[in-house]
Predict the structure.
Amino acid sequence: MSRSFMAEEIASQPQCWRAAPALAEKFAEKLPRPGSRVAIVGCGTSWFIGQSYAVLRESAGLGETDAFAASEFPSGRRYDHVLALTRSGTTTEVHTLLAKLRGISPTTVITGVPAEIAAAADAVVDLSTVDEQSVVQTRFATTALAVLRAHLGEDLGKPIEQAEQVLAEPLDQALVDATQFSFLGTGWSVGLANEAALKFREASLSWTESYPAWEYRHGPISISEPGRVTWMFGTAPDGLAADVRRAGGTFVESGLDPLVDLVRAQLVAGAIAERKRLDPDNPRSLTRSVVLS
């Protein structure tokens, strides 16, 4: 099987992230100011990236920040700034929401195809340099979060170095052969755990779930057994790894920056797709964008 667009786009991520600080500086005036009340909206992958950004921004003391699926934005709330994240720029729910917010809240859209949505928002952050050919999102989403992290003042040097190392290492065959995955996170990594689970479902038709880590023992751990993986993004609560292993499951905790661990998860999803002889660039029942009539 020839190398997929998804594989090429996964491999390009460290280089894409290197451009993030310059992009954050270029678009600084279009991104939320400290102290402002902010909502970030999107669908699918974009929503999960928004969840991570919301926690990072609020935890940094820069202002109340919420994340919503675009279809579930609370119409009665008012925000100083609304960010919309959409790779394609054509997602129906995002266009619908931006139209409703016109003249009510300032809006910025972060997109890979500005021509499709520029007229719908007050400002545009153009990430067309990291747009993708694969239906399954990888580098656009992670670079968007890298830009937002840089705008929050974070240093991306260590995550970039870690990502290069992950891309150079062989994958654990036990992960590629696993039959089920539960992804866990805490704080800002909960959104990335949600995104990892989605990547596996999209790319490899795998049975995956995702939870805040402290919630895993409140029922979901009952499915842990040999051949199944519990994958922690960030630092696990005390005793959780031992609990999973007692149940017979495989517990994964890398110590990597959670965004880098998402890259590793993307690689495993791609390897499982290859093992199953699936095409991750054209997943079953999916298109690049959901456009509703």
